[in-house]
User: Fold this.
Amino acid sequence: MLATLRREVPAHSDDELRDHCAGHVDAFLATARTGQVPRGPAVAFVRSVGERGARDGAELEILLRAYRANAATLTHWIGEQAIANTPDGLRAALAVTRMVMEYTDTVSTALADAFVQESRRLLAEAGSAQRDLLEDLLAGRSGASVETRARLAGLEPGVALQVAVATARDLGRAVEALSHQLRMARVGGLCLVRHDELVVVAPAEASLRQLVGRASAREPLTAGISLPLNELQEIPDAHRQARRALALAPANGVLRLADLTLFDYLLASADDTARRLGPPGLDAPLRETVLAYAESDLNVGATARRLHLHPNTVHYRLRSVERLTGRDLRRFGDMVDLVAALRLRR
Assistant:
C-alpha cells in the first residue's frame, strides 16, 4: 500500500504516507470487526488529504486513483490467499473483498467531497480577493498593498497591461468560458463579472481578441479592448476606453481601440450636433462617388475603376457634389468636412 501511494502521490513525504496507510489499516480493521464502513470522525484523516490536495492544486483523479490502486492490490492479495484454502476460506475471502470495495467507495467519496468543498472555498476566497483588487484598481487606488495583490494576480509591475469589457446574455457562462481560455493560454490577471459587464485586466502581450473569440464559441460575447497601459494607475482610464470600444463593437464581435484610426474614433464619438453641422444630404450615387474618391487618394481614374464607371461620369458627379454642397473637392479642409459628414450619415 505504501509503495502504491508513494508512486501515485509523490508530493507527500514517506512519513505522511506511512501515517496515512496506518490510518487506513486501523479503519479497515474496524470495518472488518464491526461490518460497518467508517463515517464521520473515523474518516477525518481521509478528508484532510482531500483538503490538502485542493490547496496544493493536485488533481482529484490522481488522488482517487491511488485509492483504487490500493484496493486492487489488496483484493489481488486476498484472492491469492484464498486459492489454497477451503471453501469456507474462499467465502470468507469474498466477504472481505466485498468489504474492501465498500470501504474504498466510502473513503473515496469522503476524499472527493472534502476536495470539492475545499476547492469551492478556495475559489470563493480567491474571487473575493480578486473582486476587492479590481475595485481598488478601477478606483485608481495605489500603494504597496495594491501592487503586491496585483502581482499575486499575475499583473507584474513594469509589464504593459490591457483592459477588456464584455457583455453577454449569460455573464456566468461567459466568465467561465473566458476564464478557461485565459488559464489554457497561461495568462494571468483578473476576469470578473462587475455589475452588468465582464471586466478583464491582463498583460498586453496576451491576444485577448483571440481568447474572447474562442470563449464566444461557448457563450456569445461582445467586447471592447483598451489601448495598452503601463501603470496600474492608468486602469480607470483604460476601463473607460474599453467601455467606449464596447459601445462601438459589432454585436457578438470584438473591437480593439488600437484598430481604430483617429478619424474613425472621432467620428464614432460625434453627437447629433456634429451630424447637423455637415453639408446637406446627397443621393446614394453621389455619396458613393465622394467616398470612393477619398479612398482612391483623390484620383479620378482610380475612382472610376473602383466604381466601374467612365472617368467622365466621375467628373460629372464630383462637379454635382460641389454645386450641391458649396464645397471645393480640391481643398483638403472641404474634402475632410464632406467625408466626415457622409460617414456620420451612413
The chain has a mean pLDDT of 83. The first strand starts at residue 161 and ends at 168. Residues 23 and 45 are 7 Å apart (CA to CA).
